[in-house]
Design brief:
CATH superfamily of the largest domain: Formiminotransferase, N-terminal subdomain
Number of helices: 10
Strand content: 15-25%
Radius of gyration: 19 Å
CATH topology of the largest domain: Formiminotransferase-cyclodeaminase, Chain B, domain 1
Oligomer: single chain
Order of helices and strands: EEHEEHEHEHHEEHEEHEHHH
CATH architecture of the largest domain: 2-Layer Sandwich
Number of domains: 2
Helix content: 25-40%
Length: 299
């Protein structure tokens, strides 16, 4: 079998069905690539796609999606709860089968260069592809968002890795990189007070002194009138989901607030959920490799 790469592009559109459907058709149009999943959120005004394919196909699909987004998403009109800086906000490549993170870094650089050469969208390289430690963390790269990016690009240390020191007028700027699998994990609270979600997010995220492999922000879900702690768990084994979930539950109780549900956005490694089930069921001496039926069927 060919080497397999996963790509999880995030687009700044979660409301316009015609644009979302166009992205879906674009994703499905490349030979050697499969669209595994996509989800859209109106409050975030954002869509997350998950594709897997061979090395050549995944590069073509990623570029085609960025091109479509640049032609149909106007960032000057974009409003949403999730931080964003471009029509295609971020394009991560993840090694899946017979691939190394170093190979994904090379893929990310090729795609980044092509995006800038052909679409004139400036690119920041992030995570494993970052050229400096200041650009590893996506939140730091994206700080200022679309509206503040023109001024940010003029700062000495924030020249794009590809492109000039000016954003694309409607498509903004895009982050492209390589990383290991993460879990996009959100916890919903029974309150409409966004300040509570912000306070809890600060406690659990690494940059606030919380969990090493957790990134988090508070988000307001306008359609449900509830606040959410929205997180990226960048190493679910180093910081498991249940540990963060229980900390959020504990901190929310200070404000008389309860958790009403949680959600996983896009795809997740099975082990992240199995580890959580093992914790809550108090299963003793559980062996994930040997005791999960599907592991035997897939081998």
């Amino acid at each position: 079998m060919a080497k397999l790469v996963e790509c999880i592009p995030n687009f700044s559109e979660g409301r316009d069905e015609s644009v979302i459907n166009g992205l879906v058709e674009t994703a499905k149009s490349v030979s050697g690539v499969t669209l595994l999943d996509y989800s859209s959120d109106a409050s975030h005004n954002r869509s997350v796609f998950t594709l897997v394919g061979d090395v050549e196909g995944i590069q073509e699909a990623a570029f085609n999606l960025v091109k479509f987004a640049s032609e149909h998403i106007d960032m000057t009109k974009h409003k949403g709860e999730h931080p964003r800086m471009g029509a295609t906000d971020v394009v991560p490549f993840v090694p899946i089968k017979d691939m190394t993170i170093e190979e994904c870094v090379e893929i990310s650089k090729k795609v980044a260069k092509r995006i800038n050469d052909e679409l004139h969208i400036p690119i920041f390289l992030y995570e494993a592809s970052a050229v400096s430690s200041d650009r590893v963390n996506l939140a730091r790269v994206r700080k200022g968002q679309f509206e503040g990016m023109p001024e940010k690009l003029l700062q000495e240390e924030w020249a794009p890795d590809f492109g000039e020191r000016k954003i694309h007028p409607t498509a903004g700027i895009t982050a492209v990189g390589a990383r290991m699998p993460l879990v996009a994990f959100n916890v919903n609270l029974d309150t409409s007070d966004i300040t509570i979600a912000n306070k809890i997010a600060k406690i659990v995220r690494a940059s606030g002194g919380g969990f090493k492999y957790c990134k988090g922000i508070g988000v307001m879900l306008e359609d449900r009138n509830i606040a959410q702690v929205s997180m990226n768990m960048v190493n679910f084994e180093g910081t498991p989901l249940y540990r963060v979930f229980e900390t959020i539950r504990f901190e929310a109780q200070r404000y008389g607030v309860n958790i009403i549900g949680s959600e996983v956005i896009g795809l997740t490694p099975a082990k992240a959920l199995i580890d959580t089930a093992e914790y809550y069921l108090k299963i003793e001496e559980f062996d994930y490799a040997k005791q999960v039926l599907e592991n035997h069927l897939l081998n």
